[in-house]
Here is the input.
Amino acid sequence: MNKAYKIAVSGAADIRACPSQAKRLAEEVGKEIARQGCILITGATTGIPYFSAKGAKKAKGMSIGFSPAASEKAHRRVYHLPLDYFDVVVYTGFDYSGRNLLMTRAADGVIIICGRLGTLNEFTVAFEDQKPIGVLVGSGGTADKIKELTKGPFRGQKKIVYEKEPKKLVKKLINLIKKDKDNL
Here is the structure.
């Protein structure tokens, strides 16, 4: 069993922007995170994060959601976001961009599935913080643009793994997290 690494799943809240298999892939990633003994972290929202949390719960895993809202009431009534499938919800009160920063920084690694601009924001925070990142290849949107975006010279190391199979992606990311932790 692995140390309980915290793995964030970042992806489109509106899955209409994603290929038809994105929902299934997100659930599989969530299940595999739980199967590997890790804790799932998401933005406590709909779409890809929601389906990954659903997958983690199906595998009897733990899921923590970071909400953009300041309270449960605002989470439900202002942002219209779900609460099921989350064991713990952290109400940040920092809207989406502040939530993205806190969620990403709380994670040991980040998985990108599909995505839009919010996902790109979470990716850039993880990239700049030199966090281990896993990209689900072929899941659409931001995920399929990251390889091109990261070409060229950058300060620091690129800690990114690419994989099209959810199970293999989670395993590769966990290995990258272990390697990163061993180098502390």
Residues 6-182 form a domain with the Rossmann fold fold (CATH 3.40.50.450). The longest strand covers residues 6-11. The CA atoms of residues 42 and 49 lie 6 Å apart. The chain has a mean pLDDT of 95.
